[in-house]
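Worked problem 6 (solution included).
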Amino acid sequence: MTLRNAHRTGLLAAALLTMAGCSSVGELPRTVLGYAAPSLIGDPRYATFEDSGRTIPAIPAAHLTDENRRQIVDFAGSEAPGTIVVDPAAHFLYLVEENGKAMRYRVGVGKAGFAFTGNATIARKAEWPGWTPTPNMLKREPERFGPYASGLEGGLGNPLGARALYLYRGGRDTYYRIHGTNEPSTIGRSVSSGCIRMFNQDVIDLEDRVPVGANVVVRSALGTAA
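Solution. The predicted structure is:
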């Protein structure tokens, strides 16, 4: 399904985790509130749309600042076209294009998003991914995570949002995720938990553009990508 049409983009779901990686969730399913009606949206790419039988609400106009909207920018990095470059310190993610350009997306960054740096590969992608607490999480906080021991199916209230990109290094899961969120107010900010979160409209657009096997470079908190 191609989502580069200006009328197809959307959002929802909470994605949060801790230093152990994005398998640790900081906030569990919640009611999704505070989204704007399509008539209040200034950018049709962030309007309400249907995705696999789910209605993704529009992003409130208050969160669609110039910095927060995806856009083509000049890119000074040395990475090859098709590479995803994550810059946690600046709260941006870049998809490198030809001729010194990149598609830039605004992101929110949790603790786990600052804990990983270096190179990785997208080993798999998921639409409306499910989520299951790890054995350590169940042992550490049985009352909190026990109700989700058998897993939480994908949907508007799932912590990983509309899409998830799973990063591996050397064939092993890094537990670093790029995913959606149902908290648009957190985009562009550092938050207490989670990996790299995006507007659901943006993570859908990114997932549509990159294949499994794509290279990812996560910058350190000391430098920026462009």
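Discussion: Helices lie at 111-115, 135-140, 142-145, 200-209.
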